[in-house]
């Protein structure tokens, strides 16, 4: 949508109702019973609401949690496991069961589903990023509803999304969605956790960045979900700065939310859509190291159109591989930008302070490249 200076709730709801491409995220808490086990009736109801939207011509991507919830019962556990290794094994069992349920549920409407499992690590590698983007695009062209989850069984503890909220915002950005719908176990955002006396429902958030200071949010309270309201606001923020409106409500409101009815909380986009690749670099994962720019390089990077050349870098910190996200800091230690490194951290010390001509002469053609190319760099 075009972002006017005073966008109203009705404008944003209308954009959601008319969205051609929609990413819907459903949390574990909305797919489970109070025991934490998967609730097939809830899953069926959600699939029915999404199928209706898809049959009306929308391109729908579902980001679904629930692998661990679906897996622990069949494995004989009483509750969701707490340790990472058992969670990963449980997700390996549960993910297949979850997909089987979705296949049946969408199949009733003649709709095919396709599974995409993503690790945070995948999302920061340019090749993988393009592959995910291309596959999702092709699935949507084929009329399939892609069902995305974090690849829990392979994700490393250090670098993982954990919750699926931020992943859904990144997917929305990747498929250039017109709307993001976050379905959870509360009907809306409240000014404080709903269990607190005096918490008021918020219907419209014109500026999510400003709103983050005005509401009190906590992590999960259900014992099933992972990120709570904190990561949902973060997802709404990522979507908003990607130019995408977000609706947050409970899963039973999925149908009305997609129709643009006044349910839940709607977040306006805060600026025009940026390049999805750049946004991805900006939000996908935590930087693994730092390149310290000298004053000249810092000025060039701040200008917004320059690559970071080895000639202007004083120091490299941290251990990372080519393609990993890194901070670009100035000499005072302030962050200037995030970017994807062009080289492994071990290769960089010999390159520091050298011009492109010197790099070619002393180290060879393969080193005559920027440490971070401007296409892979986002100012912070
Ligand atoms: N300000 C708030 N407004 C609404 N809900 C909140 C707020 N702060 C915390 N919460 C809690 O966030 C929970 C949803 O997060 P979570 O359990 O992680 O869900 P999901 O599994 O859908 O990701 C709600 O059950 C609610 O209790
Ligand atoms: N990837 C995990 C989801 C983790 C989780 O609970 O996320 P969420 O419900 O979004 O807080 C799973 O499928 O079990």
Automatic annotation (TrEMBL):
Family statement: Belongs to the glutamate 5-kinase family.
Origin organism lineage: Bacteria, Bacillati, Actinomycetota, Actinomycetes, Bifidobacteriales
Domain of life: Bacteria
GO molecular function list: ATP binding; glutamate 5-kinase activity; RNA binding
Record's function text: Catalyzes the transfer of a phosphate group to glutamate to form L-glutamate 5-phosphate.
Pathway per the UniProt entry: Amino-acid biosynthesis; L-proline biosynthesis; L-glutamate 5-semialdehyde from L-glutamate: step 1/2
Binding residues for ATP: 25, 184-185, 226-232
Identification of the protein by name: Glutamate 5-kinase
Keywords: Amino-acid biosynthesis, ATP-binding, Cytoplasm, Kinase, Nucleotide-binding, Proline biosynthesis, Transferase
Native organism: Bifidobacterium vespertilionis
EC number, UniProt record: 2.7.2.11
Parts of the chain that traverse the membrane: none
Leading EC class: transferase
Cellular localisation: Cytoplasm
Reactions performed catalytically: L-glutamate + ATP = L-glutamyl 5-phosphate + ADP
